[in-house]
## 1
Amino acid sequence: MSNPRFSAISKIADRNPVTVKIPSERISDYFGSNVFDDESMRKFMPEDVYKSVKSSIRLGTKIDRKVADQVATSMQAWAISHNATHFTHWFQPLTGATAEKHDSFFTIFPNTKGIENFIGDSLVQQEPDASSLPSGGIRNTFEARGYTAWDPSSPAFIMEIGSGKTLCIPTIYVSYTGESLDFKAPLLKSQNALDEAATEVVKFFDKNVNYVVPTLGWEQEYFLVDLDLYFNRPDLVLTGRCLLGNTPAKNQQLEDHYFGSIPERAFNFMVDFEKESHKLGIPVRTRHNEVAPGQFECAPIFEEVNLAVDHNQLIMDLMDRVARKHKLKVLLHEKPFASLNGSGKHNNWSLMTDAGKNLLAPGTTPKNNLSFLTFFVNTIAAVNNNADLLRASIASAGNDHRLGANEAPPAIISIYIGEHLTALLEEIEERVKKGPINEMEKQELKLDIHNKIPDLLLDNSDRNRTSPFAFTGNKFEFRAVGSTLNCAGPMTVLNTIMADQLKKFKAEVDNLISEGEKKDGAILRVLRRNISESKRILFEGDNYSESWAKEAEKRGLSNLKNTPDALALSLEQVNIDVFTRNKVLTEKEIHSRVEIQMEQYAKKIQIESRVIGDLAVNHIIPAAINYQNKLIVNANGLKNLGFKNAEIETQLNLLKRIQHLIESLRKDVVLMVEARKKANEIEDSAKRAKNYATKVKPTFDSIRYSVDKLERYIEDESWPMPKYRELLFIR
Ligand code: ADP
Ligand code: MG
């Protein structure tokens, strides 16, 4: 029998029905009803204010104070019409979570009874007392001021929690001296850089394009566990992952969970959080079971990167809140259960013009396809030239468990483009000459490229699941992103390196044109060079194989298996220069960010280490001793009845084995604590993080080994924590 504390789980009564109220079953009837979107703006704003805000959003220009006051008044009127009482600047500090501080609209002016009031100042800028948020040394505590500033490009929304409604205003977060302290400010800058660069290049093919935006469609993986069981696992509560525990006999080996029918309890939860998401204008569309038992995925229709990032942050928050109503806990950690699949967050990325044309979609005319090839090859070149930056953008303590384990993309960044595109690039490399190309050759080539495109589309079905960065027909899919990460990190890097690459490309093509070469010939020649130089990053084979690690090393590709190593590379001058020359981050900002991440990494491992020590010493060893006592009583009883030692070998052997494990466990915990002490003495944050990765973290393995063995020896009833078996199969 299971421990009575856990056996009452998943009773039918816990299968909470769908609770979120909606006005109609048709999503289109209430989609975005809690968003101050275009329709609400038109309704609540005077015409001239609306126009002025719209143009500021488009051009990224500052909204002047008078307009801001009017916007604030309209926004308040809208929010109050939805029964909101409070407002907050909603921002994304470098903690990884979102931050908010609520103020009521209600104020009392001298000699008045009090009214609802919201002025432009409160909309445009706030000064949260955020001295406890990470700043990596930019903001020392006595100059603790950081400002949140309204980001009009992401619409305000109303968050409903219980019966309370709060107007949330998306903002960026900067220091008193103007440095970015969050994920959003650099992201917006990277979008600008990319817009400028891509618009220039797209004009080679279409003079009518006014601007280009990057698009993002994320896929969020997660686990669901019973909330009561969750609270009985201190490791899950404090670190988000199981630091101990055996794989159950049946796990994912039958592959029966992936795309299987969704358990009712999970389904009801999904329906609820999707309804909440739809009210907030988050276009969630896909839901399905993932590979591991208890693992699921949701994905929206893609949006402009900035908005998609906000929506992903928002949905992670929403999922957690809604899950509680269903007595469930959402685990977003990259690796909650050792030996089962971890969770990722694929980032599907592309570029779109103001006319809605996808620049990474193969076209229907030869001209369109030269445009497609241009953006396609430049993405490959950007990744090849900046693979280390991409790797650093997904580095985290949690993601270290996935990258390099044989179920997720490896830590080596490479690109999969499929058989047909590989052949096409090879052909271009062969046929385009180093010197000028004549008109006939050029036309022939363009037509040939065009004729090959229908074949390329066939590759769509033939995807290489092991690749960290794959072309999937009309977008690139960055698969190595961790499930908890803010997409803004990797998206900022991808936008920036693409901007950088496109600027170089444009300059080179212009240069050839100025030397007398015709435009298309010049484009083809620069593409050819980029193809030749970027070949090492293309890989079609099995990314999990050992031979690839060896091959990658020969090709000079990095294989950075832990976070401190990956982060350290962002501080190399060539990498710093990419950010500074595109005006996305300053050198000081980069240093402070790396500092924060190194600190966070060390702290996370430190917490895990403390928890694993506590579990071993205060939970597992006492349980083992109790069980030993039972065995001793039993053995003595049998002896008193006249049994010889040879006849009670089962008990005696078990006692010995348990004793041996208790002893190794105790010794291993001492070794771990010593390693931690040494690490803590290191002043330099990068060196401390590295020490935590290489000296502290490895000590967890032997502790876990002993505990997991004990789990197999000790009677089920006395095991002090829910087992994987109980956690994983929600019914
Ligand atoms: P799969 O799991 O096979 O990769 P999904 O349907 O789960 O496919 O996810 C595809 C994702 O790609 C969705 O999030 C979708 O919004 C996104 N996507 C599709 N087209 C684009 C695009 N042009 N730009 C960015 N993301 C896109
Ligand atoms: Mg996918």
## 2
Amino acid sequence: MQKRPLLIVILAAGKGTRMKSRRPKVLHEIAGRSLIGHVMAAAKAAGAERLAVVIGPGMDDVRAEVGRNLEGSDVFVQTSQLGTADALLAARPALERHQGDVIVLFGDTPLITAQTIMRTADALAGGASVAVVGFEAGDPTGYGRILRDATGCVAAIREEKEASEGERQIRLCNSGVMGFRSEHLLGILTAIGNANAKGEYYLTDAVEIAHGRGQRTVTVMGSEGEMMGINDRAQLAAADAIFQATKRAAVMAGGATLVAPETVTFSHDTIVGEDVLIEPYVVIGPGVTIESNVTIRAFTHVVGTDRKSQSGARISSGSEVGPFARLRPGTNLGANVHIGNFVEVKNAVLEDGAKANHLSYLGDAHIGKGANIGAGTITCNYDGFNKHRTEIGADAFIGSNTALVAPVSIGEGAIVGAGSVITKDVAGGALAMTRADQKEWTGWAARFKRMMQRPKAKTA
Ligand code: UD1
Ligand code: MG
């Protein structure tokens, strides 16, 4: 079979009113990536030469997200929502330019795989004029049903609203993924009318037209999970659950132990090495790499990348994190670093063997090899206007409950006494302390207790 140039068009003009959201539907996320981001990733992986996305008027945020996922994608605006065939025609300039295969995907079907897209392209390369990806639905309600002729070719797709009682019994459903040979496509599209229950131009009518013209129309089978379309929040959660189950299985197959897999959530791009142990209730955000032999204890949140930052997080081999730790964007832990309970790290490098075992905030900091950060240490990085950095040299020892008022630097091997507020740089090897002198009053406590225990004088 000869591979032909592939144009993928993603239809995403729908507002998704059932999401009850100010955000367009395709910008909602599963596993830290927008729905359209998932679809575009599958399209790229399937080897599309060009990608065109059809959006609705005023969807500038969707346009921006498309650009972030693949620069140079063509974006077209469908001015009024007249149906899926009309949406595809909004990309007419791209269709006219293209010679080869055209595959149409929906922006709200995020679990579609590159393999299914490639199998659709194979069906076209094998001589089909139209290929429809179908699946057997447990509950077919709401989907278009695939009607076949005596030879097994697709004769038509019947939308639920137009289906007869008998046709509604059919469980073979249209996923929405359709492939076309470009030489026939525009001729078919312009022949589609809108004489149906919704008064819309249905892309699905392309099948009946092509079949009537004697062209080959075939079905490519997909699985129901992969074809899941997102129309409301419950379906969003269900798709996320499917994604997480697949990702957990892949992480475990890669040699990591998940103590209670169903309580650990990953992002689409989480990298996990061999012999990693992840305890229950751990959340991993986008852009996180966990190297081999790392232990992540219960209730830890590795934020990774958030909306404001692109910096992700890295946990190098042999490190231990948690329980109850929070690693925010820009956390970079060297080998054998220990981050203990109630420690928050943000935009900070901890070199090999550094330890912060309890109750600390380390933000905008560089912490040298083997440094020990005592319980309750805080880098005071923010003065209400600007962020400032803290430098801590290798093998430095920061006593408990120290406030390091940035910008400030602690030299290599220096010791800071517990309870200090450090506002000036400390030289390497020095001891610095800002504690008040301790005073002692001999016998004071016993006298005090006797006085307090004396019976009170009766008041009349
Ligand atoms: C569609 C199919 C149906 C299939 C189902 C699978 C048609 C006519 N029906 O129905 O056979 O079983 O998907 O989920 O194609 N869109 C636009 N502009 C429009 C209308 C839709 O861009 O004018 C986009 C939407 O954003 C969405 C996609 O096309 O991404 C599908 O539209 P939707 O209204 O959800 O179609 P369904 O009724 O689900
Ligand atoms: Mg839909």
